[in-house]
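Many introductory courses stop at the sequence. We go one step further.
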Amino acid sequence: MELGKREIHDHERFINYGREHRYSNDWFLRKASYLGEDYELLTDYKGCKYKVTFYHKKCGKLWTVRAGGVVLDHYHCVHCFRSRGERRLIKFCKDNNIEILSEYAGMKAKLSLSLKVVTMNFIDHLLT
């Protein structure tokens, strides 16, 4: 073995020796393709621990998120992505003439509701 050169073992080529930029911007876009055409990446990908900014075409707002959240946890826009429970609650309230007075804060939080008063002339209804 020559002086100054060292032997490279099989496992060493997979180790990232402090290099921050391991994957490319194209790799990140492929991983974020589950978001669809509604999202446009505005900043470059630097690594999973850094933040990236998307423009959401559907709601028209900017969305800044940690890149690892997009790649690993499949995050969506926080401005318009609602939980399943919140969507079901809104649908139930619309179907049953109920007005939501307070903001939805989760399944276990208290929520203020009000019944909408339906004004209808009973005599006119009987004559038709």
